[in-house]
Amino acid sequence: MWRCYGCAPRLRLPSRLHGDQNEEETMKERENPLAWKFISFSQVSDLVPLTVDLVQRALAEILQLKQYKHCMKEGILLDYYVSGFWWAKEQDFTILLISVFMTLLNIILENLSNKHLPLLDNLRELTKLMTEVTQSSSAKNRGVEFFTVDQAKAIINYMKISLFQHYRLYEFFFHHTPDLEILDTKLQIEVIKSVDPFPSPLEESLTWDIYSSFVLQQSTEEPEAEAEAENEESMEVREPTTEDPLACFSIDDVKSVLNEVTSEVLGNIQSEINEKLRKQEEAFAARINKLRKS
Length: 294
Description:
The chain has 294 residues and is an all-alpha fold. 62% of the residues lie in helices and 0% in strands. It contains 11 helices and no strands. The protein is elongated.
């Protein structure tokens, strides 16, 4: 999936070591087995003094991830390498050791993506690689730059929490194609139906003579007709009636209705008076009981 970017074009970024061939030759004399396999000496030198945002842009150019802002796959890959580089920088690794660490990240990721290695096999591969790049007494005597034992432990812990802890997710990410979901919305549009079989012509297409003679005249006549009809209805309602509404009732009917209303009202008043008297009697009885007890 990934090729070696050691021969990739140099970035146009602030550089402090671009032209120093003697120093680069000196670094190559102290060659580590995994040095400069993934990112070259000049590229690492350019990345070290940058901020995290500039590192992200520079690595996207080095790794040729042009759609990382819109493509989720490229964004995840770029985040994997940017996080690893920034962690190595915070560990105060030298330029050579940062290059070795970036190569480790690439090899372990390729084991997962291209070789389809299971979790345990990839862990064994990481252990094997760490034994090759961890400092030994003979390498120390030769002056070759390797990771110390503490640095190797820190690298293994980082790989554990960054990649191996989410190994199933990375496997799904590389080996499964997500289903495409097409979302659509159905809209129901109601169109006003015309009385005629064909729709009426637009008013803008009519000349002023025809519009003023026919359309405008009809629109002014219709409100007047409606207003006249409303006035006639109101006149009909407002006409006074000469009939007496009580003509159908006799005097006996009126007396019986008055008796019923009077008895109902007096009954309600009597019940209220009785209730108040009962409450007063209870209050007086309670006071008398208190006086007797005292």
